[in-house]
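<context>
A single protein, sequence plus fold
<entry> Chain with its tokenised backbone below
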Amino acid sequence: MRLVLLLFVSVFFLGACVSSKKYKALEEKERICSEALEKYRSSSADYQAKSEKLRAELDSANKTISMLQADTARLGSELDLRTKDLRWNKKTVKSM
């Protein structure tokens, strides 16, 4: 019974071992992946900052567009009124 238990424990521990060559290869792979992850996190932060800056610029440009559209509409109305006033003045001058 002890022999079977000892055999089972030995097989379990020997089967679970990883060779040093594989372990070093996995460590190197993990190091490379960690460096790449850090690089991507840094890039992500940079792009997030750029995105926020561009979003602010877009909001500012949209406000400017809205102001210009309102101004254009106001000026168009004023032009129509002044054109009608000019026509009325011309008719008044002709009738004199």
Notes: The mean pLDDT is 89.
